[in-house]
Amino acid sequence: VNLALAMYRDVASGKFDNLVLCSNDTDARLVLEAIRSDFSAIKLGLVATVFWSGRVVNKGLSGLCHWTRNHISDAELESSQFPNVVPTGKKAIRKPLHW
User: Fold this and answer.
1) Does 99 score more than 90 pLDDT?
2) Which stretches of the chain are DSSP H helices?
């Protein structure tokens, strides 16, 4: 419920024109339906990371989205990481070595 409400409120804010859901959980179907109905200009994307699990992307979710992916590549994950040291106004935050 919290995720669905946050998604809907984010779309209603009018601050962006795309929303990407990273899930394969059918509980998100109702909020995707509401967003498609109430905010037809919003482009919806679905990243359902099922590629390595042998599962399939939920058709109820993918049918509501403008595009769907079934995986995120290692290179994409690597390029989206924070740097090893993140400066702050106080003490720098260091990424653990095991990440």
Assistant:
1) no
2) 2-12, 29-38, 59-62, 74-79
